[in-house]
């Protein structure tokens, strides 16, 4: 069976709650953490392994020198992206209870704010960012287990990568990543978008992830996924064997950064309904409400059992999985329009989302999608 690996960099590290639905996998930083089945981290390898790899490459190299071919258009574009964007990508080093770890991060504003993977900056101490040949101390602003990312801050003026739009990506769209693999220098990798996945091996991601066909390398957890304009469209989080990896869409990360700016922490919303798949579609949707909980935002707004959910915010709903996607972007305290079909007519409710009722992060179901908004992992104000 193929396996996925997450970017957790330290021995014994456990995956974020939002991903723990998948099981156990091998870490790429030299440890055996508890990860989703097939999901593990980009970790280091022993020096002996590196030398062994060099020997194999040397054996496969022709003895006679060959003239380098002319660069193609795509290689020039990749080089251009690398030269323009590498200055905003940094190496991150830190420690935790298991020892030293390293990964990749990138600046998103001129004031030293940067994204990285939760496995790199989520539960670490003594975090340092290597920038322009110098090391600077960094502090954690936010770490979110559900999405698998962390937001760090360095007190310096910094370059910043422009934010793109992952919704413009299609299958086979070319993409580039820049990271710090194997304790080496900044390195570009080129690949294509292979898919847009909500689940893997029977478990569900907290939101849609980008499956990217490019060679993942240890130490690249938290690296930016870039389009050929040099805009960030995702953050590398998990590897899939040695041939591809998963990235969190940048819109999901930006939702959380907006929450931090507004509230100082992530604020996932909840409305209090149970939804399951209907036998037949209504207005193109099979997501039918089976229960509206008492004294919840949904009950106060007037939602009823039997309502077929057609749209949540900007997300059109065709099946219960679409509600899982939409619920990630709900923010506690914000009003969201929800359109349902009831008795042959469409009704739109303005519902003010609340935080998860017991004030904690909820664990996801292990084997099947929990068909309700409140049962997925959610943050609290």
Walkthrough of the structure:
- With 381 residues, the chain is α+β, with helices and mostly antiparallel strands.
- It folds into two domains: 1-47 and 72-265, Thrombin, subunit H; 273-375, Pdz3 Domain (Roll), CATH 2.30.42.10.
- The chain has six helices and 19 strands.
- The protein starts with a strand and ends in a 29-residue tail after the last strand.
- The model is unreliable at 8-37, 43-65 and 360-381 (pLDDT under 50).
Summarize the structure.
15% of the residues lie in helices and 36% in strands.
Helices and strands, with pairings:
Layout: E1 4-6, H1 47-60, H2 73-85, E2 89-96, E3 99-107, E4 113-117, H3 118-121, E5 125-131, E6 134-144, E7 149-154, E8 174-179, E9 187-200, E10 203-213, E11 224-226, E12 232-240, E13 244-249, H4 250-263, E14 273-282, E15 285-292, H5 297-301, E16 308-312, E17 315-316, H6 320-328, E18 335-342, E19 345-352
Antiparallel strand pairs: 1-12, 2-3, 2-5, 3-4, 4-7, 5-6, 6-7, 8-9, 8-11, 9-10, 10-13, 11-12, 12-13, 14-15, 16-17, 16-18, 18-19
Number of helices, where a helix is a run of at least 4 consecutive DSSP H or I residues = 6
Radius of gyration (CA) equals: 22 Å
Largest sheet: 6 strands, antiparallel, barrel
Q: Remind me, CATH topology of the largest domain?
A: Thrombin, subunit H
**Secondary-structure-derived class:** alpha+beta
Task: State the CATH architecture of the largest domain.
Answer: Beta Barrel
Let me know the average pLDDT.
81
Keywords:
2 domains; Pdz3 Domain; 381 residues; alpha+beta
């Amino acid at each position: 069976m193929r396996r996925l690996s997450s970017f957790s960099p330290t021995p014994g590290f456990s995956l974020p709650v939002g991903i723990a639905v998948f099981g156990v996998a091998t870490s790429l930083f030299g440890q055996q953490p508890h990860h989703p089945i097939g999901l593990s981290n980009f970790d280091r390898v022993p020096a002996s392994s590196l030398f062994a790899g060099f020997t194999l490459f040397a054996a496969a190299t022709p003895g006679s020198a060959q003239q380098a071919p002319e660069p193609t258009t795509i290689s020039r574009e990749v080089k251009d992206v690398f030269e323009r964007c590498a200055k905003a990508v940094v190496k991150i080093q830190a420690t935790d209870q298991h020892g030293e770890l390293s990964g990749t991060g990138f600046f998103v504003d001129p004031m030293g704010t940067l994204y990285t993977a939760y496995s790199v900056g989520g539960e670490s101490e003594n975090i340092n960012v290597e920038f322009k040949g110098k090391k600077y101390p960094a502090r954690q602003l936010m770490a979110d287990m559900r999405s698998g990312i962390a937001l760090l801050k360095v007190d310096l003026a910094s370059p910043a990568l422009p934010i793109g739009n992952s919704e413009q990506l299609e299958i086979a769209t070319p993409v580039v990543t820049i990271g710090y693999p194997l304790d080496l220098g900044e390195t570009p990798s080129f690949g294509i978008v292979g898919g847009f996945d909500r689940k893997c091996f029977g478990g569900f991601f907290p939101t849609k992830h980008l499956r990217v066909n490019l060679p993942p390398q240890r130490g690249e957890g938290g690296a930016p996924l870039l389009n050929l304009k040099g805009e960030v469209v995702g953050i590398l989080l998990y590897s899939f064997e040695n041939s591809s990896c998963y990235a969190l869409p940048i819109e999901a990360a930006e939702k959380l950064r907006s929450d931090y700016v507004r509230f100082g922490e992530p604020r996932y919303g909840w409305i209090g309904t149970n939804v399951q798949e209907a036998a037949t579609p209504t207005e193109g949707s099979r997501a039918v409400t089976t229960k509206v909980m008492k004294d919840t935002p949904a009950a106060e707004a007037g939602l009823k059992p039997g309502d077929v959910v057609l749209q949540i915010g900007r997300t059109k709903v065709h099946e219960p999985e679409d509600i899982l996607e939409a619920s990630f972007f709900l923010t506690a305290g914000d009003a969201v329009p929800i359109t349902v079909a009831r008795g042959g007519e469409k009704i739109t409710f303005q519902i003010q989302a609340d935080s998860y009722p017991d004030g904690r992060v909820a664990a996801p179901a292990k084997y099947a999608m929990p068909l309700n908004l409140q049962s997925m992992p959610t943050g609290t104000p």
